[in-house]
Every structure is written in structure tokens, then in C-alpha cells.
Specification:
Helices cover 43% and strands 8% of the residues. The chain is of the alpha/beta class and 474 residues long. The longest helix has 21 residues.
């Protein structure tokens, strides 16, 4: 199977759908080939775009980048997968109808956003580590060409082309620091540049936690005292040094130092495992004891611990067993149900909501139904894993519109997701963990310089890319 960057493939084939019709990988896993159902969605979007752009007497490109184009894409999704999304034909032909249906009054705070350092122009650390760790040899020899995963385009995709209000800059603690896609000081640089340009707080930044490193204490102090990080990102399956959250000799000294430094939030990559011997360290079985022993630390579980990023299945099949079991995520859900005191654990939706909702929306229904049922809507965290996906706007639109099917509700006892639930998940939950005053931010941000620049950008017509920058299978 060949790999190619999605933005390069889109440019070559003229694909400009406002939602992705194929799973995108950041190199951590092999991307799934386009499913038959996704191909149907892509073809139907093309048909609707041709019909409505002619009806409205606009060119296809402008239509596909409009709110009408986005609505048409969800109409196509419903035709293929069933009524998973709230959408009306009126919003396809009338932007005012869209504005009335979706007033965009949520406070959207993205827990997981990425770009890469300036020196990267091709495949990232995974190809370079192949000799040592055996990661993704399929990337050997690939010449990607110019991409747009860097800082300037990150700001455009996150803050100009989406309704995101605030975001956290994060990174992957994979391999030695020299191969990190974005080192901690570059992460913080992005935070500082965005906040300075805005004149208000629009970004926070993680530091990169690596308690198995020989100099971890010195590195900890540098990131806390010099970089002034806002929280930690951990990767327990780091090929250069695996560890567990419940390891009293490795993890606990780090957590104790966190408490001394007054940092209460740590986001951990769980699920989506690297292959082979690393896989056990991506499981969720080390969370309960760590959460019990450190009740004052908030454990934000990236990707909600989901093991698989979908599998290749016949049309209409979603891979969920008759009991609704999602490998590892359902285990996390059961852990919470059996331990009601685990109120310091927060599942995050980065990547897994986006991957599931465009591949098998019923999987997204199981995911959200189980997480909200066990943890409560006030404990689920919004994240997108952008900008591998390009602008997160399509995921924002998908979450706004998504509804758990009545069939799933009846069979599994899931409750419908209310607008109030969605509003909490979109931002206030995360804001509370980082002591962000949402009301104060709502007052300050609409008048800041970044908002003014966005207003001028949109008034001039905008220039949404309608693509993603990760890898797809061809």
C-alpha cells in the first residue's frame, strides 16, 4: 500500500470536499484505504456540489468553501450512513438559514493541536527511526514536497478557518528530542506569538514529559521555570523509554514534582498504539491506580484510549460487537463505572471522533454514548488533533450536528446528546481544568487583534483550504 500526503493528492485529483472522505494519519499508524461507503459519500458530494453551484450561479470552489457546501457534505453523509447529522436543504442555498440554525455561540477550546518545526519538510520522526524501532518502513524513500504543517498555516487553519476560540499547543514525546516534530520551546514560542498578536490569551502550551530520561528533573525545571508551560503531555509508549503511569519509581516522582510546581494537568496519549513491544504501554490499565494515588492531578486521556483507528469492513458494518464493545475505550468506561471516585480522569476526543464519524458514524455514537454515560458530559474534553486534518471546522460542524441514532439509544440505553452537553464538551470543561474564566474570555476575545484580523480575512472572502496535511493510503 502506498502513502501520500492528502493535500498533495487533493491537488492532483481536484478533491475539495469540505469534510475528509478518507482517514488521515500523522504517521503513527497505517492509514486505512478509503472505504466503499466513503467513496459513495465523496461521489455524492460531487453531485450535490455540481447541482447547487449551478443553481446558485457560483463556481464549485466557492460553493464547496461556503457554509452551503459544508451542509451539502452532511446531506451526502446522511444519504449513505443514515440520519446521523442535523442538516436542512435551506442552509445549502441560504447562508442566513445556516446562521440561524447554528449561531456559533459555543466557547470552543481545543485540547490537542499540532504543527511541526520549520526544519521538517518531509516525513517526520517515524521514518528516521525505522532502523532502530521498526516504525513505518513504508515511508522510506518517499519525497513529499512542500507541505503546510508549519506555524503560519497552523494559525490560519485553527483561528481563521474555524470557530475555535482557544487551543492548546501540544506535541509527541516520541524518540529523542532531536527528532521531536515540535520541541517544547517551539511549542511555547507558538503560544507566545499567538497571544502577543491577539493581545489576549488564545493559546496555552504543554511541556513534554519524559520521566525515564536521565536528565528529566533538569528538563522539568527548565520547562516549568523558563518556558512557563501550562501543563504536561506524556507518551508512555515512547520507543526511547517506555513507562507506566502507576510505576511508583518512575511516574510517581514526576507527579510529586508536578504538585510541588503547582501544575495539575497531564495529558497522556493512550490508545492508537505503536506496534509490537510498545503496544502494552498504550493500554489504559495503569490509569486507575495513578488517579487514586494522585487525586489532585487531572489525567486527560487523549484519544479516549481507543485502540484501533477503524478497520477495513464491508459497506454498512462498523466493527462494533453486539455488546457495543470498543477495544480499550469501553475498558476505560467500565473502569470509571466501577470506580465512581475517578473524577480526576477526563477522556478526550482528539482524532477518534473525527476518524469514526467519517468512517462509521455509529462508532461515534457508541463512543459518545459510553463516555458521556460513564464520565458525564462535564468530563469529556474536546480535541481535534489538528492540523493533520487541516482546519478543525468540519469536526466542529460534525459535532454540532451529530446525533446518536434512535436505534443505538434503544438497544444500548445511550441518552441523546443535548446542546447543553455539546456546549460543555466544546470548551468549558477544559477551561475549568486550566482556570480559564470563560465569561472573561468571551468579553475580551471578540475585540482582540486576532479576531479583528479574522473579520477582515472573512470579509475579503476567506481562503479555506478544504484539505488535510496528514497521510492517506492510495
Amino acid at each position: 500500500m502506498a502513502w501520500i500526503k492528502k493535500n498533495i493528492r487533493d491537488a492532483a485529483e481536484g478533491i475539495d470536499t469540505p469534510i475528509p472522505t478518507q482517514i488521515v494519519s500523522n504517521e503513527e499508524f497505517t492509514p486505512l484505504p478509503q472505504t466503499p461507503d466513503q467513496a459513495k459519500v465523496e461521489a455524492r458530494i460531487d453531485e450535490l456540489a455540481a447541482h447547487y453551484s449551478a443553481k446558485l450561479d457560483v463556481n464549485r470552489r466557492d460553493f464547496m468553501r461556503s457554509t452551503g457546501g459544508m451542509a451539502a457534505a452532511f446531506m451526502a453523509m446522511n444519504e449513505v450512513f443514515g440520519p446521523a447529522f442535523k442538516v436542512a436543504e435551506a442552509e445549502v442555498v441560504d447562508s442566513q438559514a445556516h446562521a440561524e440554525m447554528w449561531p456559533k455561540n459555543e466557547f470552543i477550546f481545543d485540547a490537542q493541536t499540532h504543527h511541526v518545526k520549520d526544519s521538517i519538510s518531509g516525513p517526520l520522526m517515524f521514518r528516521k527511526m525505522t532502523g532502530k524501532a521498526g516504525l513505518n518502513p513504508d515511508l522510506d524513500g518517499i519525497v513529499e514536497g512542500k507541505d503546510t504543517l508549519h506555524r503560519a498555516n497552523f494559525v490560519k487553519e485553527i483561528f481563521f478557518d474555524s470557530d475555535t476560540v482557544m487551543a492548546i499547543m501540544t506535541g509527541a514525546v516520541i524518540g529523542p528530542p532531536k527528532v521531536h516534530a515540535l520541541p517544547a520551546d517551539e511549542m511555547v514560542k507558538t503560544r507566545n506569538l499567538v497571544n502577543q498578536a491577539a493581545g489576549s490569551q488564545r493559546m496555552l502550551s504543554h511541556g513534554l514529559a519524559n520521566p525515564v530520561a536521565e536528565n528529566w528533573q533538569e528538563d522539568f525545571d527548565w520547562q516549568v521555570n523558563e518556558l512557563k508551560i501550562d501543563g504536561w503531555k506524556a507518551y508512555t509508549g515512547n520507543p526511547t523509554g517506555t513507562w507506566r503511569l502507576d510505576d511508583e519509581k518512575v511516574a510517581y516522582p514526576f507527579f510529586e514534582r508536578m504538585q510541588t510546581a503547582g501544575i495539575t494537568n497531564i495529558s497522556i496519549h493512550k490508545g492508537l498504539p505503536l506496534p509490537g513491544r510498545f503496544e502494552p504501554f498504550f493500554k489504559i490499565d495503569d490509569i486507575r491506580q495513578a488517579a487514586k494515588d494522585f487525586p489532585d492531578i487531572n489525567f486527560i486521556i487523549y484519544h479516549s484510549g481507543m485502540k484501533n483507528m477503524m478497520t477495513m469492513l464491508p459497506p454498512g458494518e462498523n466493527g462494533i460487537d453486539p455488546n457495543g464493545y470498543i477495544p480499550w475505550t469501553t475498558d476505560l468506561v467500565r473502569m470509571r463505572e466501577e470506580n465512581p471516585w475517578m473524577t480526576n480522569v477526563y477522556p478526550e476526543l482528539g482524532a477518534v471522533f473525527g476518524h469514526s464519524v467519517i468512517t462509521h458514524p455509529d462508532v461515534a455514537g457508541h463512543l459518545l454514548g459510553q463516555l458521556i454515560g460513564a464520565f458525564g458530559a462535564d468530563h469529556v474534553i474536546w480535541g481535534t488533533d489538528a492540523i493533520w486534518w487541516g482546519s478543525p471546522q468540519w469536526m466542529i460542524e460534525a459535532f454540532r450536528r451529530f446525533q446518536i441514532s434512535e436505534a443505538l439509544q434503544a438497544q444500548y440505553g445511550y441518552k441523546p446528546i443535548s446542546d447543553a452537553d455539546k456546549s460543555l464538551i466544546f470548551g468549558p470543561n477544559l477551561a475549568g481544568l486550566y482556570d480559564i474564566d470563560v465569561n472573561a474570555a468571551r468579553t475580551a476575545i471578540p475585540g482582540d487583534s486576532l479576531s479583528s484580523m479574522k473579520t477582515a480575512y472573512l470579509k475579503d472572502g476567506g481562503d479555506a483550504s478544504n484539505t488535510a496535511y496528514g497521510w492517506v493510503a492510495v
